[in-house]
Amino acid sequence: AQTVTQSQPEMSVQEAETVTLSCTYDTSENNYYLFWYKQPPSRQMILVIRQEAYKQQNATENRFSVNFQKAAKSFSLKISDSQLGDTAMYFCAFLDRKKTSGSRLTFGEGTQLTVNP
Amino acid sequence: GAVVSQHPSRVICKSGTSVKIECRSLDFQATTMFWYRQFPKQSLMLMATSNEGSKATYEQGVEKDKFLINHASLTLSTLTVTSAHPEDSSFYICSAAPGPYQETQYFGPGTRLLVL
């Protein structure tokens, strides 16, 4: 079974600064996806960024980028130029790519990020 | 982008009653839908996976007779909490995947259930 670990329950950052959220995972699979989801106070889950394991290049979406270290099974999220609207719970998630047996998302415990003005 | 709706957004019921929560994919067909449960300040826990036209697959520890899932069409899945009790109070979230590998999942806004 896959496990996802987020070792930082809470983090805070000043507006306009950069913050990095950590995530490690454990799997015996070779073909999988990794995600960062954001859950603001509204509790709507929002996809922030996605990484395919077979791609070595780190995914980037505007101010959000990841540092994917496959051998180390590490998948950190960097948020640049933090904005007040980035305040949310951030979940790291793993999905194994199995068509026949059914894929499932495994979530980490979450990191509550607060952006301070 | 793709939109998933849930209804109701919030429900309060008496202990012993049953509650039905609907999950709809509004602008795409979902081969697979997922139901999650989230307690305050905790992560999402997968309860079950439903595929259109077939029985749902429940995660270990989830009572299938307690949480009835019906995926009657490619755009609708329902979760019925039968004989609800206060410990069933939680936030229930569905997601829908348009593709066979479920690498893209769109989440509904969630349903807050309070059982008195």
Explain the overall architecture.
- The complex is a heterodimer of chains A (117) and B (116).
- Chain A is mainly β and 117 residues long.
- Chain A is 0% helix and 52% strand.
- Chain A has strands at residues 3-5, 10-14, 19-21, 24-26, 32-39, 46-52, 60-61, 64-69, 74-79, 88-96, 105-107, 111-116.
- In chain A, the strands form three sheets. In chain A, strands 2, 5, 6, 10, 11 and 12 form a six-stranded mixed beta sheet that branches. A four-stranded antiparallel beta sheet of chain A has the order 3-9-8-7, with no helix packed on it.
- In chain A, strand 10 and strand 11 form a beta hairpin.
- The radius of gyration of chain A is 14 Å and the shape is globular.
- The model of chain A has no long low-confidence stretch (mean pLDDT 93).
- Chain B has 116 residues and is mostly beta strands.
- Chain B has no helices and eleven strands.
- Chain B has strands spanning 4-7, 10-13, 19-25, 32-38, 44-51, 57-58, 67-73, 76-81, 90-97, 106-107, 111-115.
- In chain B, strands 2, 4, 5, 6, 9, 10 and 11 form a seven-stranded mixed beta sheet that branches. A four-stranded antiparallel beta sheet of chain B has the order 1-3-8-7, with no helix packed on it.
- Chain B is globular, with a radius of gyration of 13 Å.
- The model of chain B has no long low-confidence stretch (mean pLDDT 92).
- The A-B interface holds A 33, 42-46, 50, 91, 95, 97-99, 102-110, 112 and B 32, 34, 38, 41-44, 46, 49, 57, 91, 93, 95, 100-103, 105, 107, 109-110.
